[in-house]
Amino acid sequence: MSRLTRKDDHIIHTLKLYKRPALSGFTDVTLVHNALPEVSENDISLETELFGKVTGAPLIINAITGGGFVPAKVNEALAVASRETGLGMAVGSQTIAVEKPEFAGSFSVVRKINPGGLIMANVGAHVTVDTALEAVEMISADALQVHLNVPQEAAMIEGDRDFRGWINNIAGIVRKIEVPVVVKEVGFGISYEVARLLKEVGVTNFDVGGRGGTNFISIEGLRGNRKLDFLESWGITTVASIVEVKMSCIDSTIIATGGITNALEVAKALALGAKAAGIAGVFLKVLFERNVEGLIEMIECVKSDLKKILLMTGVENSAELRTVPLVITGKTKEWLTERGIDTTIYARRSREPINGRYIFQEHRELY
Ligand SMILES: Cc1cc2nc3c(=O)[nH]c(=O)nc-3n(C[C@H](O)[C@H](O)[C@H](O)COP(=O)(O)O)c2cc1C
């Protein structure tokens, strides 16, 4: 089956398979309520510096598609939503357009519609430096995402089976590409060990793309008409992956994607150490159900809800959220404890009053 049909299939099956609740670990995380916040909503700012651009919120429309008629229409609509809401946006894998330049327009339309916004290019880790460079140039990208998708390829009937050489490709891309490079999973998470390996070749930006949201094993199972339910729980949850990557590379920039559906999950991801959250599946679903106007409305709603959560935790911006105490329980605590990570670091973040307002002090060893 051609890659074009595959891209349409991914959209159709994502919409079919969408289910709540997501299983990304966020129900195991509780932000500690602040009954005396001493903060006014007027002073809260969601603006976030990300890869050299200032975005309207610590949230991105993550990589979904490109190539072909339907993907082009989806990219157009997502670009309008990103421009109107100030969110950053990533396009889907551009390899198809490097191979067949007639498809480049379905990606470059995003830059045309949103000339000043944060736009990220996207390629797989199998590509050459030249292909990565072409992808960046195609959309005048501010950053490049390099995706890791081994379980998806393994589950795909026509997928790749040889994954050697990826770390060398990534090392070459990081060395040669001038914009920031973000290594991203597509829904199975990045472990402490993999983050460490990537750090050794110069990677400092990670999108954890954890388990719990869009599941490409299920999608490929549906596409290939095969039952792969027994593999559906494969991967590291988004919450566990944020913590693993943070512990592995303290100074890294983390984007948290994977099953994020509302402002509380965004806030929890930021409090765990992410600089921004990413959403793909839910945005796609809202776009198909309620058009671009509905998507814009939903994003504005998430932004407004996020401000309320910042109010209730007593902080004025998302960076301060990274210092708010939170409690990790349940399966996620068990996982992290077994992995040698002390979750009480988060639960007991220290605080001192500054000008009558309680500012949570950053944990030096964490940030
Ligand atoms: C239809 C669809 C296509 C996707 N295609 C890509 C892609 O080309 N490149 C990529 O890096 N990620 C791709 N993703 C993965 C998302 O960027 C994201 O990492 C993943 O869906 C988890 O986030 P979610 O649970 O919010 O959907 C795709 C996701 C969807 C739903």
List keywords for this structure.
binds flavin mononucleotide, single chain, globular, two-stranded antiparallel ribbon, 8-stranded parallel β-barrel, 367 residues, TIM Barrel
Low-confidence region ranges? 362-367
Largest sheet geometry: 8 strands, parallel, barrel
Distance between the termini: 46 Å
H and E string:
HEEEEHEHHEHEHHEHEHHEHEHHEHHEE
Q: What is this structure's SSE topology?
A:
Elements: H1 3-17, E1 29-31, E2 48-50, E3 53-55, E4 59-61, H2 69-85, E5 88-90, H3 95-99, H4 105-113, E6 119-124, H5 129-138, E7 143-148, H6 150-155, H7 166-176, E8 181-185, H8 192-200, E9 205-207, H9 216-223, H10 238-248, E10 253-257, H11 263-272, E11 276-279, H12 281-313, H13 318-321, E12 326-328, H14 330-338, H15 344-347, E13 351-354, E14 357-360
Parallel strand pairs: 4-5, 4-11, 5-6, 6-7, 7-8, 8-9, 9-10, 10-11
Antiparallel strand pairs: 1-12, 2-3, 13-14
Flavin mononucleotide (FMN) is lined by residues 10-11, 14, 62-65, 92-93, 122, 145, 147, 184, 186-187, 209, 213-214, 257-260, 279-282, 284.
What does this entry look like structurally?
It is globular, with a radius of gyration of 20 Å. The chain has a single domain (3-26, 48-303), classed as TIM Barrel (Alpha-Beta Barrel), CATH 3.20.20.70. The strands form 4 sheets. Strands 4-5-6-7-8-9-10-11 form an 8-stranded parallel barrel, surrounded by 6 helices. A two-stranded antiparallel sheet has the order 1-12. With 367 residues, it is an alpha/beta fold. Strand 4 (59-61), helix 2 and strand 5 (88-90) form a beta-alpha-beta unit. Helix content is 44%, strand content 15%. Helix 1 crosses helix 9 (216-223), helix 2 (69-85) runs parallel beside helix 4 (105-113) and helix 11 (263-272) crosses helix 12. It has 15 helices and 14 strands. The longest helix has 33 residues, at 281-313.
